[in-house]
Amino acid sequence: MQVLIKSATILDRASDHHNKKRDILIFNGIIQKIAASIDQKEADLVIDKPNLHVSLGWFDSSVSFGEPGYEHRETLANGMQVSAQSGLCHVAINANSAPITDNKSAVSFIAQRTEDSPVNAVIVGALTQGSKGIDQAEMFDMNTVGCPSFYDYKRPTDDVNLLKLSLQYTQPFGGLVQSFPLEKGLATKGVVHEGIASTQLGLKGISSTAETLRIQRDLGILEYTGGKLHIPTISSAASVKLIKAAKKSGLDVSCSVAAHHLLFTDDVLEGFDTQYKVMPPLRDEADRKALIKGLLDGTIDGVTSDHNPLDIESKKKEFDHADFGTIGLECLFGATNKALGTEAAVDALTGLRAAFGINSTTIEEGQTADLSLFDPQETWTVDAKTLPSFSKNCIYHGHKLQGKAYGMILGEKYHLNDE
Predict the structure, then answer these.
(1) pLDDT in tens, 58-101
(2) Domains of the chain in sequence order
(3) Cα 195 from Cα 192, distance rounded (Å)
(4) 8 Å CB contact between 180 and 152
(5) Has 284 been annotated as catalytic?
(6) Contact 104/138 with Cβ under 8 angstroms?
(7) What distance lies between CA 236 and its chain's CA centroid?
(8) Of 306, 347, 370, 375, which one is the catalytic site residue?
(9) How confident is the model over 191-229, as pLDDT tens digits?
(10) Which end of the chain is more exposed for a tag (fewer CB within 10 A), N or C?
(11) 12-29: b (≥16 Cβ within 10 Å) or e
């Protein structure tokens, strides 16, 4: 099949066509020709959209879909469909299900359920059995069926020796260990950032120190053991400084930030809306600015939606008792683009590909098509009720974002939102 993309502005710093408007001809999943103009007669499918932009395929490093066990929140089939509609070519599916993805057969189950999707499922296995933090999961066996990374979703690895052994164990096969940055002893019953807003609202706080103490510990273990460590969803200025210093010293550490931390601070908590209850909590303006600066200077490797669908009963509660989490796949590009600008947003949505073992490619002739298609200028107001995710717990509801995806192409598979 031949696909022709017409008059697209290419955003790919590694390509000779960066920031140029070009036609792109794809044949059987391979970019065959890039030129100022290509005859439409050569194509079976022509993609011609207003203000069309094309970049290297976006990757979301932290996505939860529920299935198996929580299909009422989100199924794998619908979650992958939403990912394609959101312009994503790759999504890392967390071990946040029942049962937990902690063995080879559980990984194979998710792989089989997602194999027909145009989006590549990067399956994240649990670090420990049942994500209970006691015994190592079957990491090597999971890796043999394509699992590149291991993470007990939102559960800190309290056993420091377990983290040490995991970093050592995964080195021979290049596995990526993830460690959620939270010192639980400093966060007991906390629900929001510890600061002026928490005091004024009478809500129990979680200080940024609870995050940085754990990061300091984990970086110290990484320095001792070697290996590859990923710290998901950092939220504070102090964390950015720690990771910047660790990278400068040569440690193999990567990190991400959730897109909602780039737009919102704890000021939005005034109305006690539980949609703003996320983990890590929304912090203050100084932290928000430091996170943006960390992305722009390369300290923070990428942005994630941290998509976590929850049923209405989990959110329609008093603030103290509501669950942490928000959906965000559909809003990922619009939020990131609004916060960073388009080129920086593309960098943030592709920056973690290598850490998670996604093949490197560029937008050049002879390369596999791995493309996100979008309009960076379209503004829209989020209405959670109209979003295609099953769950509607959306932190962006009622907010205006900038930029929308047209779809994606990955090899011979594609999705266009108007088809």
Answers:
(1) 999 999 999 999 999 999 999 999 999 999 999 999 999 999 99
(2) 2-53+365-385+399-416 (2.30.40.10), 57-350 (3.20.20.140)
(3) 9
(4) yes
(5) no
(6) yes
(7) 18
(8) 306
(9) 999 999 999 999 999 999 999 999 999 999 999 999 999
(10) C
(11) beebebeeeebbbbbbeb
